[in-house]
Amino acid sequence: GNPPFVMIRDGQVRLIECSGLLLGVSSDFEYEQLTVDLKKGDRLLIFTDGLYENIHHDRIPSEILLEEIKPIAQFSKKEFHKSLIKRLAAMRTELKDDITLLTLDLL
Fold first, then answer.
1. What is the per-residue pLDDT for 1?
2. pLDDT (0 to 100) of residue 64
3. Rounded to whole angstroms, what are the CA distances from 40 to 16, 34, 87?
4. The Cα angle at residue 47 between residues 42 and 49, in degrees rounded to 5
5. Could you give the CA distance from residue 22 to residue 88 in angstroms, rounded to a whole number?
6. Going along 1-107, which residue ranges are E strands?
7. For residues 96 and 85, what is the distance between their CA atoms, to the nearest angstrom?
8. What is the three-class DSSP state of 47?
9. pTM
10. pLDDT value at position 53?
C-alpha cells in the first residue's frame, strides 16, 4: 500500500495511515477516506516508500522514520529536508527506489 503521511504539530510527530492499493493501480478501487483537522503551524510530510527502504531490515520502517524526525521537527522546511535525507542516507544499505518527499507547512 501507500506509506503513511506524517503530521508534525507543536513538536509532536504522528503517523496518519489510510490503507489501500497504491495510487493508480486500479481505476475502480474504492479508497478509504480520512478527514484530518489541520491548523496553522502544522507540517505534513508526504513521501514515497523509497524514503525509508533498505534501512535496518530488522525494524519497522515507520518507527525508524519517527525516531529520525522527532529531533529535527522544529527545523525550518529547508533544513528539515536536508537533515532528514542526510540522516536516512547514513543508514541506507543501498538505493533501489526513487525518493520523493513533499513537505507542506500550513501558514
1. 56
2. 86
3. 18, 19, 27
4. 140
5. 23
6. 5-9, 12-16, 43-47, 101-105
7. 15
8. strand
9. 0.83
10. 74
CB 53 within 8 A of CB 97: yes
3 state SS of 103: strand
Residue 47 phi/psi, 5-degree rounding, is -155, 165
Classify each residue of 49-64 as buried b or exposed e, where b means 16 or more C-beta atoms within 10 Å of its C-beta: ebbbbebeeeeebeeb
The three cell numbers of residue 84 are 532528514
* Radius of gyration in angstroms for the set of CA atoms belonging to the chain, rounded to a whole number: 14
**Which amino acid is located at 41 in the chain?**
G
- The phi and psi torsions of 12 (rounded to 5 degrees) equal -95, 135
Three-class DSSP category at 79: helix
Question: Averaged in consecutive runs of 10 residues, what is the pLDDT profile of the chain (107 residues)?
Answer: 86 87 81 90 90 76 89 94 90 78 93
Helix, strand and coil percent figures for the chain, each rounded to 5: 30, 20, 50
